[in-house]
Amino acid sequence: WEQRATIRADKITKAWSSNPAYGVGIACGPSRLVVVDLDTHKPGTEIPEPWKSFEITTGADVLDHLAGVHGGTITPTYTVRTVSGGTHLYYAAPADVAYGNTAGKIGWLIDTRAHGGYVAAPPTSIGASAYDIIDDRPAAPLPMFLLDLLTHDRRPATRTSQNRSQDGSRTQARPLQPIGSGEPLRDPDAYVNRVFDIAINGDHANGVAGLLDATKGGRNAALFVAAATVGKLVARDLITEHSALDRLLVAAAGHIAARAYTAYEAENTILSGFRRAATRSAA
C-alpha cells in the first residue's frame, strides 16, 4: 500500500471529490518521517513499574524521563493531538537509515511509525473527535537520543556490557572505578552526576560500557555492574540509597520494557550491587 501513496494533486482531488469525508493518511517511509506516537494510560489497565512508582501515566512523561536519562532533548517539532488524547511527534528521518515500526520498544505507551507504517493526519475525524495540529512548525530532525534508542540493538560489538581481552575472548564484567574515590571532592554534585553518567551511558572513549549498551544476554550483568559502581556513592554517603535506586530503575526502564527482567528483579539486582560496593568499601 505504500506504493499507492501519492502527492499528485489530480489524484488527491479526484479521491476527495468523490467523498469529502475521507480521512488523510501519511505513509511515513516514503515521506522520510519517523512519527513518535505518545499514548495515554487507559483507565482500568495496570501501570507497570517503574512508572507506577513515579506516578507516570502518559507516553509524553515516559519520553521526558527517557530524555533525561539519556541526556537528550525532545526537540520541538510538528505535533498533532490524536483522537485518543495522545500525541504524534513528526520527525525527519536520517537519510542513511531505514527504520521500521516499533511498539513499546522505546518505552511504555510509546510507539513509532516509519517504513511500513502510516499515521492518520489532520483534519481526519473519527466520530466526534478529530486529529488536530497543535504545533505546525516543520518536522525537526530526529533527536539523537531517539535515534540511539531506535538503533540500539545494532550498535557495534565494542559497545556492549561485556569486556574483551586482547585476544577477543570475553572477560568478566567488573564495576567501574569512580573518579578519585577516597579523596576530597570539590564539587560532590558534579562528581555524583559524572559517576551516574559513566554507569548508565558508559565512557566509550576509554573502552568502558554502560547499562544502556547492554544487549540480550548481558542486561542483568550490566545492571549489576552499574549498581556496584553507583553503590560506591551510597557507601560514601554522597547520595541516598533510595535516590540511587530510583535513578537506576529509570535508566533500566528500556530493559524492563524489553522483558529482560521485571522491575522487582531489577530492584533486587541493584540492591545486590549496592551490597557488593558496601562490602568492598568497608574492606
Commentary on this structure:
Strand 5 (102-107) and strand 6 form a beta hairpin. The protein starts with 8 loop residues before the first helix and ends with a helix. By secondary structure, it is α+β, with helices and mostly antiparallel strands. The chain contains 8 helices and 13 strands. Residues 153-184 have low confidence and may be disordered. The strands form 4 sheets. Strands 2, 3, 4, 5, 6, 10 and 11 form a 7-stranded mixed beta sheet that branches. It has a two-stranded antiparallel ribbon with strand order 1-7.
Secondary structure: elements and pairs:
Blueprint (H helix, E strand, L loop, with lengths): L8 H10 L5 E4 L5 E6 L20 H12 L7 E4 L5 E6 L9 E6 L2 E4 L4 E4 L3 E2 L2 E2 L1 E4 L4 E2 L2 H7 L12 E2 L5 E2 L16 H14 L17 H17 L5 H11 L1 H5 L5 H20 L1
Parallel strand pairs: 4-11
Antiparallel strand pairs: 1-7, 2-4, 2-6, 3-4, 3-10, 5-6, 8-9, 12-13
Q: Architecture of the largest domain in CATH?
A: 2-Layer Sandwich
In DSSP terms, counting alpha (H) and pi (I) runs of 4 or more, how many helices? Answer: 8
Shape: elongated
Please provide the ordered H/E string of secondary-structure elements. HEEHEEEEEEEEEHEEHHHHH
The average pLDDT score comes to 81
- What would you call the structural class? alpha+beta
Number of strands: 13
How many structural domains in the coordinates? Answer: 2
Can you summarize the main beta sheet?
A: 7 strands, mixed
CATH third-tier fold name of the largest domain: Prim-pol fold
Strand content: 15-25%
**Helix amount:** 25-40%
Poorly predicted sequence stretches spanning 5 or more consecutive residues: 153-184
The N- and C-terminal alpha carbons lie at a distance of: 65 Å
Rg, rounded, reads 22 Å
